[in-house]
Design the sequence.
């Protein structure tokens, strides 16, 4: 008998969708850059284009919501079609595996499509998941997604370890994952928005919430400070270990293990606990703790020496990333009116994209004038400063802010 309850149907489809999503995570975290460096020997500009593709999609997501409102389309099917389009472009890269600019263009546009539809999924979570279980349900799917990423990370590392030319099969796997993700998204409940006909609907209309909502504005500033530091450091994980000109030049299998498998193992182990914490602990507190763990991981990775230090750094970063994925994907559901979640999220993803677009270029420019170690210290300072900023705001919070961003129930 088919599942008709929106919560159960959404959860079931999200569990299945987490499998291809985990495969795609390895593209952005490890294999895309590894292929760019080891197979095509691409320059900094080409690598920056690839690394900024997801961020470009985040920025365009600001305009997806008002366009969808005008189209009166259903949320899930629109998101699914965008994902399938991304899979098509990834297939283009796989069909011409020896053309470096087709590789960069196809994968970059594919990742662009996947990131631009994220606010639509967040709106679905807000409508179909109860507030008291949202973090837990989201985290369970996130844990399975991380497990899938670990498994594919092992497989992909083993495959290219046998013969680097096997990267062609990885490209086809990424394309197939894109299509499968779209199919499971298409099967989500076909929810329509109960919109306010009098609400602004221009392409930039979502930005009005920054002015209206002080708590939203405060957290956006903190996310920007933290995100610049974290993204600049994360852009260079593979570059630091894989590129011979930096003096380490680890084998591809070792790079895939350290940067693509270890952090995802810890993300898989820690996603569910962070989901429970998200449902029960105040958002300001959770965000501050996560920032400190991110900073510790980055500093350990770049300031340490040898495989053990690099692995510990990536483990800490993976622990923080587990909680970061939950809070990044759901925090607007604690602030936004029910039907405005996608608008809030589109602003958040737009600003995430803005910093993500700048971060790769900033990262590669920075290592041209300073060491990785100096850059990691600057990144750590930015992340810690973000924690200090929201801590000050949290201590001065009024009753309304504490209601919106505080715990839903005591531990």
Sequence:
């Amino acid at each position: 008998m088919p599942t008709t309850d929106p919560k159960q149907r959404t959860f079931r489809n999200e569990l299945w969708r987490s499998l291809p999503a985990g495969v795609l995570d390895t593209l952005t975290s490890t294999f895309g850059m590894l292929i760019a460096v080891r197979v095509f020997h691409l320059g900094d500009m080409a690598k920056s284009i690839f690394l900024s593709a997801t961020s470009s999609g985040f920025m365009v997501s600001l305009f997806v919501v008002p366009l969808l409102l005008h189209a009166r389309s259903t949320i899930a099917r629109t998101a699914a079609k965008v994902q399938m389009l991304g899979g098509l472009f990834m297939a283009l890269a796989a069909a011409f595996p020896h053309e470096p600019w087709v590789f960069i263009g196809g994968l970059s546009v594919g990742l662009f499509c996947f990131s631009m539809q994220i606010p639509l999924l967040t709106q679905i979570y807000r409508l179909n998941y109860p507030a008291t279980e949202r973090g837990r349900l989201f985290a369970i799917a996130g844990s399975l997604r991380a497990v899938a990423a670990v498994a594919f990370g092992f497989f992909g590392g083993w495959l290219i370890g046998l013969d680097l030319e096997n990267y062609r099969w990885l490209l086809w796997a990424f394309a197939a994952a894109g299509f499968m993700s779209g199919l499971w998204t298409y099967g989500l409940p076909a929810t329509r928005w109960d919109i306010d006909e009098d609400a602004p609907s221009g392409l930039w209309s979502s930005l009005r919430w920054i002015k209206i909502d002080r708590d939203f504005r405060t957290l956006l500033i903190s996310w920007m400070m933290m995100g610049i530091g974290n993204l600049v450091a994360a852009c260079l994980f593979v570059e630091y270990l894989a590129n011979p000109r930096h003096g380490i030049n680890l084998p591809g299998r070792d790079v895939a293990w350290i940067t693509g498998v270890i952090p995802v193992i810890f993300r898989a182990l820690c996603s569910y606990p962070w989901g429970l914490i998200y449902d029960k602990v105040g958002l300001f507190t959770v965000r501050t703790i996560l920032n400190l763990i991110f900073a510790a991981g980055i500093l350990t990775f770049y300031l340490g020496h040898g495989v053990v230090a690099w692995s510990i750094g990536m483990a800490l970063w993976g622990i923080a990333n587990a909680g970061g994925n939950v809070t990044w994907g759901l925090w607007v559901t604690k602030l936004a009116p029910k039907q405005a979640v996608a608008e809030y999220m589109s602003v958040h993803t737009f600003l995430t994209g803005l910093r993500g677009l700048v971060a790769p270029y900033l990262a590669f420019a920075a290592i041209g004038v300073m060491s990785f170690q100096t850059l990691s210290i600057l990144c750590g300072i930015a992340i810690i400063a973000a924690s200090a900023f929201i801590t000050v705001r949290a201590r001065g919070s009024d009753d309304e802010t504490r209601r919106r961003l505080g715990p839903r129930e005591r531990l």
